[in-house]
Batch of 3 targets.
Target 1
Amino acid sequence: MDLINCALNLVVPPASLVMLAFAWPALSFINVCDWVYNTLYSENLEDKVVIITGASSGIGEQIAYEHAKKKVKLVLVARRENRLRGIGENARLLGAKHVMIMAADVVCDS
């Protein structure tokens, strides 16, 4: 086991530095491209209506919060109405102009 630890201690740090040296320029370029794109093509979402399904937890909840910061009007749709009430209140506190909650299941039963 000591031999494996010794070998890893010799190999891993230089390998990590080499991977970082190759990855850093590419990641920096991607970040600059993203910044330029967002600067040139930013859309003002204020006073627009955004409908979010599955807003009672997970990604839908976080999307609701992100759009609330942009001062949009939110329509939150999910099955759990009690969770939607809390998320709607949080969205109002974050800056959403108006929040409408709707308890519904959007699964297509055919």
Target 2
Amino acid sequence: MSKVSKLFKGPSGSSSSSKSSSKSSSKSSSSSGSKSKHRSRSGAAPSPQEALHRLRETEAMLTKKQEYLERKIEEEIMIAKKNGTRNKRAALQALKRKKRFEQQLTQIDGTLSTIEFQREALENANTNTEVLKNMSYAAKAIKGVHKNMDLDSIDSLMADITEQQEVAREISDAISQPFGDEFDEDELLAELAELEQEDLEESMKNMSRLPSVPTTKLPSTRPSQRTTTKKRVEDEDDMKMLAAWAT
């Protein structure tokens, strides 16, 4: 029985060991696969929007820290002024803390400058990417439009348009030509000049027939005005005499 049991135990033990080894290998392969997947996910580049969002959050956090440090510096200055003469040790400790806060504030200023530069560079890169995408889209649209055009047909069309314009110009010239007898323009101008000369001579004759201007001096109207004034004074005197007689 012992030999038989040993015979049965031998292959079963080997099978169990093979099963355990296969399980461990499968576990190791699955764990290595999950690790490779995790690495591939973590190694993927973040989107520009996500990076900008994180940079803005960092800027906001550092700005709050900056405000906090500025308040603490003011507080330490007040403590140093308050204990300057009474408690010199407390005043010196306050100034030391102020110096540490100032160092932290300087570091934060430099960090904010770096983050701001990085954010602006990322925003510009994102803008350039969108511009290039839109330009590529527009170039494809233009290519699609020009794809249905034939240069030979365009040339023939422009030649037809030019020919039709010349025909229309010839028709306009033919229509605008005057009909009937043609007269010499120089003769017409000479006749017009003769008519103008006749009008000028007639006007000169009419001017010679006008009456001459009198040379004698016209009588002045001042004496008549004097007589009128004298008569008015006499009438007023008569009216006064009648009024006195009536009273």
Target 3
Amino acid sequence: MASETDIITAVIQLVVSFLLLIRAVITFLTSRLQHCQCCECRHRELELEEELDKERSAAATAAQEAMAMIARLQKEKASLQMEARQYRITAEQKHFYDLQVISFLKEMVTKLQKDNFSHQQLSFSLSNAQDEEQRLLAKVCLSA
């Protein structure tokens, strides 16, 4: 895909080529005008001057259109750059937020694992105490 710079360069090259062609036509028409010095050539001279004016007008229009296109492309480029910056900032903020969430979740998992381990130890100790109590109760009952 061609970049905007490539497109602008191509447009400028086309305009320059077109202007060089117009320049050659103008030079040709001017030289033809210079050769028409007799009365019979006056009518042809007027036609050539009219054609020359049209060519000048076409060249000016082409240059204006090229400049308008370049300005539009530059505006679009600036807009796309702004949008890209905004997306980058949003992505960076989301990445930072995601890192914070991951860190928080890791802390929660660690805490839950510690709490679960403590709960298991407490359950084990309570179970052992109940077993010991039942054994003692059984001994007391047997000895009585």
